[in-house]
């Protein structure tokens, strides 16, 4: 199974992924996107979000394409979990591109463009379950600030600093979940709910 954990910056996705892995009772692989440590498109994204790529971040479609190409680089790794007894948890996946792009453009039409790009043209596998970590945007923002204060290597990027963008992205995620965009969704903050759904 491919299970995508989605949410805005500071929502607690990494914490939730680790909690699920530790309490699942079966081997669970984990992969986080963007793959800043191993993917050139993801590294270009990081440079752009920290103001080192000129006006690249001004283009919603250019940034969305870089995020998509990062995932495409992991396509073969992901395909082994399709129709498999194995489970992989993804800390963000395609829906994050749809939600952030829609929030930036303030137009949900881009959600279909992202779907066609990533699941269609790039042939990425559709997840078996998408989980929206329903952390209040105000709480998530405070967590991101605290994380930055405690760890100087975790300087917030352009998206993380934009509280309006984070709120619009959360709302876009809710609309994706309501539509069952690209498959089944669960909206929760409880790891037990997710484990039950997986089982």
UniProtKB/TrEMBL annotation:
<dbReference type="GO" id="GO:0004798">
    <property type="term" value="F:dTMP kinase activity"/>
</dbReference>
<feature type="region of interest" description="Disordered">
    <location>
        <begin position="142"/>
        <end position="162"/>
    </location>
</feature>
<comment type="similarity">
    <text>Belongs to the thymidylate kinase family.</text>
</comment>
<keyword id="KW-0067">ATP-binding</keyword>
<keyword id="KW-0808">Transferase</keyword>
<dbReference type="Pfam" id="PF02223">
    <property type="entry name" value="Thymidylate_kin"/>
</dbReference>
<dbReference type="InterPro" id="IPR027417">
    <property type="entry name" value="P-loop_NTPase"/>
</dbReference>
<keyword id="KW-0418">Kinase</keyword>
<dbReference type="GO" id="GO:0006227">
    <property type="term" value="P:dUDP biosynthetic process"/>
</dbReference>
<dbReference type="InterPro" id="IPR039430">
    <property type="entry name" value="Thymidylate_kin-like_dom"/>
</dbReference>
<dbReference type="GO" id="GO:0006233">
    <property type="term" value="P:dTDP biosynthetic process"/>
</dbReference>
<dbReference type="GO" id="GO:0006235">
    <property type="term" value="P:dTTP biosynthetic process"/>
</dbReference>
<dbReference type="InterPro" id="IPR018095">
    <property type="entry name" value="Thymidylate_kin_CS"/>
</dbReference>
<feature type="compositionally biased region" description="Basic and acidic residues">
    <location>
        <begin position="145"/>
        <end position="162"/>
    </location>
</feature>
<dbReference type="GO" id="GO:0005524">
    <property type="term" value="F:ATP binding"/>
</dbReference>
<keyword id="KW-0545">Nucleotide biosynthesis</keyword>
<dbReference type="GO" id="GO:0005829">
    <property type="term" value="C:cytosol"/>
</dbReference>
<protein>
    <recommendedName>
        <fullName>Thymidylate kinase</fullName>
        <ecNumber>2.7.4.9</ecNumber>
    </recommendedName>
</protein>
<keyword id="KW-0547">Nucleotide-binding</keyword>
<feature type="domain" description="Thymidylate kinase-like">
    <location>
        <begin position="5"/>
        <end position="180"/>
    </location>
</feature>
């Amino acid at each position: 199974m491919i299970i995508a954990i989605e949410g805005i910056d500071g929502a607690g996705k990494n914490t939730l992924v680790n909690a699920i892995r530790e309490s699942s009772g079966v081997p669970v692989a984990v992969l986080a996107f963007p793959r800043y440590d191993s993917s050139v498109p993801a590294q270009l994204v990081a440079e752009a979000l920290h103001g080192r790529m000129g006006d690249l971040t001004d283009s919603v479609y250019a940034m969305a394409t870089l995020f998509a190409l990062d995932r495409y680089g992991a396509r073969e790794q992901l395909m082994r979990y399709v129709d498999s007894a194995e489970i992989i948890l993804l800390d963000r996946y395609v829906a994050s591109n749809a939600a952030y792009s829609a929030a930036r453009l303030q137009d949900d039409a881009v959600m279909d463009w992202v779907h066609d790009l990533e699941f269609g043209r790039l042939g990425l596998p559709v997840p078996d379950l998408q989980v929206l970590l329903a952390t209040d945007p105000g709480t998530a923002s405070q967590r991101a600030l605290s994380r930055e204060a405690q760890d100087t290597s975790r300087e917030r990027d352009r998206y993380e600093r934009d509280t309006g963008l984070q709120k619009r992205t959360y709302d876009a995620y809710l609309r994706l979940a309501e539509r069952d965009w690209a498959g089944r969704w669960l909206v929760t903050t409880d790891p037990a709910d997710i484990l039950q759904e997986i089982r």
